[in-house]
Design a protein that fits this description.
The chain is 82% helix and 0% strand. The N and C termini lie far apart (79 Å). The longest helix has 51 residues. It is elongated, with a radius of gyration of 22 Å. The protein has one domain. It is mainly alpha-helical. The chain has 4 helices and no strands.
Length: 141
């Protein structure tokens, strides 16, 4: 009986270790997307300043496509940071760590993939929108 309990405990620890390894990869990937989205925001500003030769203090010409790309990049950053939080909470739940603090929402902690998907989709949407805006602007130059 004791041997069966030890085998079950060993199997649970092995599963938890695998979950930890996999979630670490997803967390690292989320960090990368968050950094890339921040770089996308910065690149879009620098690109417009360089193409139009804007001097500091001169208002940047904006259009809907550029603003939409910024919104997508910002949403991607927010989703990436939120996913990292949810992934850690997910591991806490899997490891059966007792937490006295409030964790919300429980459904996303148990299944954080919608936030991860949001991060990826908004990142690529921002990149596509920025590319469209850059092409439009370059055709005017």
């Amino acid at each position: 009986m004791k041997l069966e309990e030890e085998d079950k405990s060993f199997e649970q620890n092995s599963i938890l270790e695998n979950e930890f390894k996999i979630m670490t990869l997803f967390i690292d990937n989320a960090k990368t997307y968050t950094q890339l989205a921040g770089a996308g925001l910065a690149l879009s500003v620098v690109f417009i300043q360089q193409v139009f030769g804007l001097k500091p203090g001169v208002p940047m010409p904006l259009d809907k496509t550029l603003v939409a790309s910024w919104a997508c990049f910002l949403l991607s950053i927010g989703a990436g940071v939120y996913y990292q939080y949810l992934a850690v909470k997910y591991l806490e739940v899997k490891a059966k760590v007792d937490c006295d603090h409030f964790s919300w929402p429980k459904s996303l902690i148990e299944h954080p993939y919608p936030v991860y998907l949001t991060m990826i989709l908004t990142f690529y949407a921002g990149a596509v929108l920025f590319t469209i805006d850059a092409i439009k602007r370059l055709s005017y130059v």
